[in-house]
Design brief:
The structure is a single chain. With 125 residues, the protein is mainly α. The protein folds into two domains: 63 residues, Winged helix-like DNA-binding domain superfamily/Winged helix DNA-binding domain (Arc Repressor Mutant, subunit A); 45 residues. Helices cover 61% and strands 6% of the residues. A two-stranded antiparallel ribbon has the order 1-2.
Length: 125
Amino acid sequence: MLTVELAQRGRAGLGQPVRTLIIGRRLDAGHRLPSVRQLAGDLELAPGTVARVYRDLERDGYVTTSATGTTVADLGERSSREQQDLIHRMADNFAATAVRAGIDLETAVQALHGAYDRATADVTP
């Protein structure tokens, strides 16, 4: 089963979280994604939206599609570069939000450590 938290509805709301799962290696190369119809039903999205996201992911080289379904592509070295780009964007967003909220660096880092500990506790190897 593919578990995705949608920050927003629609194409962008699904596409980015799936990319993040692939780049972060939470979905391994060869992992079969749910069918368009199944994922649309699970997330209460229109099947056309999921189909467009899958096409976008295929166009960008994140997945491959065949008669048997859609699977995660092998990103090889590209995955490491994209993972670094992703973590830098996430850190920039986190830092900017903390600064705007008037949170000092030490408090922000402590909060990040706590969030990371909670997140890793939920991950099953």
